[in-house]
């Protein structure tokens, strides 16, 4: 199984050297029970369905010719989807303007709008609760603040879909 994964990864490195796939990158290759091969790819500007189809056909050609997965297998090539955590720093820039939920090494959870990405971390626009005394009542309101989080602190990052 490890040998199959390594072979597929090598094929993808070669594919991503092609001009039409230069902004693509591999996130993960998994082999599941029943000889189900899952390949998760992404691109700097977002992976397209057409790119996934081409990558799938490319890999199938080698799997069929070389017999690496045997006679029967299922190959799925897809983008990571919003329910999967961001795995590489390279994935963050295309999500600027979207909301992220971060889990930090300290166990703290932080949510906010992704405003910037640098080599060392991200800047989120977060809302912090603040109390204000107004007309003899304490009223809760929120203040928007910028929070910088280093990549070293992030243990998980997920895009939050908001409607």
Question: What labels would you give this structure?
Answer:
single chain, 163 residues, alpha+beta, GMP Synthetase, Chain A, domain 3, SH3 type barrels, 2 domains, three-stranded mixed β-sheet, 2 helices, 8 strands, elongated
Structural account:
Helices cover 20% and strands 44% of the residues. It folds into 2 domains: 2-78, GMP Synthetase, Chain A, domain 3; 89-160, SH3 type barrels (Roll), CATH 2.30.30. The protein is α+β, with helices and mostly antiparallel strands and 163 residues long. A hairpin with a 3-residue loop joins strand 5 (109-117) and strand 6. It has 2 helices and 8 strands, in the order αββαββββββ. The model has no long low-confidence stretch (mean pLDDT 92). The strands form 2 sheets. The protein has a 5-stranded antiparallel sheet with strand order 7-6-5-4-8, with no helix packed on it. A 3-stranded mixed sheet has the order 1-2-3, covered by helices on one side.
The helix-and-strand class reads alpha+beta
Q: Beta-sheet strand percentage?
A: 35-45%
Topology-level CATH name of the largest domain: GMP Synthetase, Chain A, domain 3
Number of strands: 8
Distance between the termini: 41 Å
Shape: elongated
Helical residue percent band: 10-25%
């Amino acid at each position: 199984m490890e040998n199959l994964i390594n072979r597929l990864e090598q094929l993808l490195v070669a594919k991503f050297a092609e001009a039409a796939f230069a902004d693509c990158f591999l996130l993960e290759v998994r082999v599941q029970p029943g000889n189900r091969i899952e390949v998760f790819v992404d691109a700097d500007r977002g992976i397209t369905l057409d790119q996934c189809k081409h990558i799938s056909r490319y890999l199938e050609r080698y799997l069929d010719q070389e017999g690496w997965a045997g006679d029967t297998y299922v190959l799925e090539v897809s983008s990571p989807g919003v329910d999967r955590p961001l795995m590489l720093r390279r994935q963050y820039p295309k999500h600027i303007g979207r909301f992220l939920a971060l889990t930090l090494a300290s166990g703290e959870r932080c949510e906010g709008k992704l405003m910037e990405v640098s080599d060392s971390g991200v800047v989120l626009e977060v809302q912090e609760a603040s109390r204000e005394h107004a007309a003899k009542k304490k009223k809760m309101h929120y203040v928007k603040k910028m929070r910088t989080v280093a990549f070293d602190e992030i243990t998980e990052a997920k895009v939050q879909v908001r409607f």
